Amino acid sequence: MLTDLIPLRGGAFPMGSADFYPDEAPVRTMTVEDFAIERHPVTNAQYAEFVADTGYVTVAERELDPALYPGVAAADLQPGALVFRPTPGPVDLRDWRLWWDWAPGASWRHPFGGDSGIDAIADHPVVQVAYTDAAAYARWAGRRLPTEGEWEYAARAGATTTYPWGDDVMPGGTLMANTWQGRFPYRNDGAAGWVGTSPVGTFPENRYGLVDMIGNVWEWTTTRYSARHQAAPDAGRGCCTPSLEPDPSISQTLKGGSHLCAPEYCHRYRPAARSAQSQDSATTHIGFRCVVSG
Fold this sequence. Notes:
One of its GO terms (molecular function) is formylglycine-generating oxidase activity. It comes from Mycolicibacterium arabiense. Pfam families: FGE-sulfatase. InterPro entries: CTDL_fold, Sulfatase_Mod_Factor_Kinase, SUMF_dom, SUMF_sf. The protein is α+β, with helices and mostly antiparallel strands and 294 residues long. The chain has a single domain (5-56, 124-293), classed as paralog of FGE (formylglycine-generating enzyme), CATH 3.90.1580.10. Helix content is 10%, strand content 18%. It has helices spanning 44-54, 131-140, 148-156; strands at 5-8, 11-15, 28-32, 35-38, 80-84, 100-104, 182-183, 187-188, 218-224, 251-255, 274-278, 286-287, 291-293.
């Protein structure tokens, strides 16, 4: 069953931020057309329905082409994906390799490797999906992936504050999103009891009735990443049908932050925040949701 769509009237809004990371600037007025967006990220159960119907094989489940990855050891070209592993204690936060591990056999079915599964987390966002895997689901659903402009417009829900609910990260002591609680990357106290992803809708919805726009999982957009905001033609309206094959040399823009975002390392659980990810990347903290044009 597909996720309910929330229709949104288009309009203009101040996109970006000058207060945090350089790639969020400059702030500029963005206009989006009418569109509708899924209420929550695509879940494991929903992605399983897509795969059962189509037989689709995700990027993480395929053998890697050595020609696309010159110099990479043959052992690292087998099917698999990146898995987050907490460290034993404090580490140098400049080196992400200390907490990310290449796990053979990891895929959307087995998020943490061959011995893991999704039976108990059917209502959690699907992860370990590369950009083209998300686009394939969207095509099957008769929908598409959002542009960065559309995504940010929906996440802000009319607000111009730091977070869609205001400028206080925890208003009245209420945890508003699934983000890292504790000390990254070695002590995770859990967000409302959840270490890792949480069931969609666990945390409060925004003013538009959307859930998990902040935290839980990063979400793919069709906007190619650039170090600073560009006045790109795809920034505010749907275009540019993704290729069926990922190009590891191209990075897409991710939005929303995830359960791994912590203030001392990744203060990106804000509508303006963005991150770069190569099209072939599949990890334990990236998912997606779909939209349709108005």
